[in-house]
Write a structure and sequence with these properties.
With 414 residues, this protein is of the alpha+beta class. The chain has two domains: 261 residues, Jelly Rolls, CATH 2.60.120; 108 residues. Strands 1, 2, 3, 4, 5, 6, 8, 13, 14, 15 and 17 form an eleven-stranded mixed sheet that branches. A hairpin with a 2-residue loop joins strand 11 and strand 12. Helix 5 crosses helix 8. It starts with a helix and ends with a strand. 25% of the residues are buried.
Length: 414
């Protein structure tokens, strides 16, 4: 029985289901954004940013930058020469020398006696007034001199790159959970039916055991139709159709008590199965499907393993014009939900999804949770089957009809 939460979901389902086209458009937009995100992650720009980050945050870089800022004029040999010059300017003999020199009456005796002192003054005087000295002094006294350094330029380049909109967006997304769907899941199976024929590397057109044991198709004892081994499968415009029609056919029928026996059928239909190519335990299984006619044709997207049980019906229409979502796990044990009118899903595509974990089964239609189940969770790999057919005699005007499949996708947790 459905729990209270599931009952509420069903009651409010049709009032809030998003359009299939919107879901796919949003998914395509998000996928494009994710691809751009990944592309930037491999870009030369990001490599450059990472290199610059490593450089400008390294202890060695910081030491070099501090050394540049600390390399002031006071720590140069030029400053020492200026200090020596200033000391000489206070010397009595130099003061007298300069005064007499200004008057033009230098005492030659004093000059000879203190020639080394005077010569030292003249040399320092000439140097501290030279263009070379003044340039060094101006450079070293410039408080923003480090801006001319390679280190400063690297730091600026790094800051400018971080300020770019595309870079800020990348690092913002890197910290977010926006792409968790892509990061946490990997695709394990995909078919969009773009080929003109069914991909036989992915699909067989009979029940798995008929193919494995008989190399032939069969129908079940309750079926009014014969599964025609692909003759009722049509691919056109990237859509796979399973067609049910009125048509005479002879084939095998399986009855659990008497086995296989020949039978005449008035109707044909078909199925596609991944029984030989793909099986998976746990994950996400989904398909975009359109039901052109529900009642009385039974359309189904279901999963089984080596035996007929366990079985999961991701969806199945029935003769009461309902869609059921059923989990069968042993004889007499099943959990079934059939509250959605199948007629609601006719003539438009919907995305049917099953998310299967160790602890639960979650059914969704167009990303809206329809049902959750925690009983009888399968614990073995299962394969997918899409089938259409008849369990009762159809109305004269109800055939031919088809179930259309746009694409099938499966994912597993990374």
């Amino acid at each position: 029985m459905a729990n209270l939460k599931t009952s509420f979901v069903i009651k409010s389902f049709f009032g809030r289901i998003p359009a299939t086209s919107k879901i796919e458009a949003d998914e395509a937009s998000l996928k494009k954004e994710y691809e751009e995100f990944l592309a930037f992650g491999e870009s030369d720009d990001l490599k450059k940013i990472n290199e610059l980050e490593k450089e400008v945050n390294s202890p060695e870089f910081k030491k070099r930058l501090e050394a540049i800022k600390a390399d002031t004029f006071e720590k140069t040999k030029e400053y020492k020469k200026l200090q020596a010059y200033n000391v000489l300017l206070k010397n009595k003999l130099i003061k007298k020398y300069l005064k007499n020199k200004e008057r033009g009456s230098i005492d030659e005796a004093d000059k000879i006696r203190n020639d080394d002192l005077y010569k030292r003054y003249e040399d320092l005087h000439a140097y501290v007034n030279s263009d070379e000295f003044l340039a060094i002094k101006a450079e070293k006294e410039d408080k923003e001199r480090y801006k001319q350094s390679d280190e400063y330029k690297l730091q600026q380049e790094y800051n400018e790159m971080l300020a770019r909109d595309d870079v800020k967006k990348y690092f913002s997304l890197l910290k977010s959970n926006k792409f968790d769907e892509f990061k946490n899941w990997e695709m394990t199976f995909f078919d969009d039916f773009n080929s003109s024929q069914l991909d036989t590397d992915k699909w067989i057109t009979n029940y798995y055991w008929g193919k494995a044991l008989l190399d032939d198709g069969y129908s079940l004892a309750t079926d009014k139709h014969f599964n025609s081994d692909g003759k009722n499968i049509e691919i056109k415009n990237s859509i796979c159709k399973i067609i049910t029609r009125e048509e005479k056919a002879e084939g095998k029928t399986w009855h659990p008590r008497i086995g296989f026996f020949p039978k005449q059928f008035s109707y044909t239909s078909g199925l596609i199965s991944t029984g030989e190519s793909f099986r998976q335990k746990h994950g996400r299984f989904q398909a975009k499907v359109k039901l052109n006619q529900a009642n009385p044709v039974t359309h189904a997207f279901w999963m089984v393993s080596e035996k007929m049980l366990p079985e999961i019906d991701i969806f199945k229409t029935d003769v009461k014009n309902r869609i059921s979502m059923t989990n069968f796990w042993s004889d007499g044990n099943k959990s079934k939900l059939s509250k959605l009118k199948a007629g609601k899903f006719v003539h438009d595509f919907y995305i049917f999804t099953l998310e299967w974990t160790e602890k639960s089964l979650v059914w969704k239609i167009n990303d809206v949770v329809v049902r959750e189940e925690s009983q009888g969770i399968p614990n073995e790999p299962m394969y997918m089957i899409f089938s259409s057919g008849l369990q009762v005699e159809p109305h004269a005007a109800s055939l031919p009809t088809a179930m259309e499949i746009d694409w099938v996708r499966c994912y597993k947790k990374k």
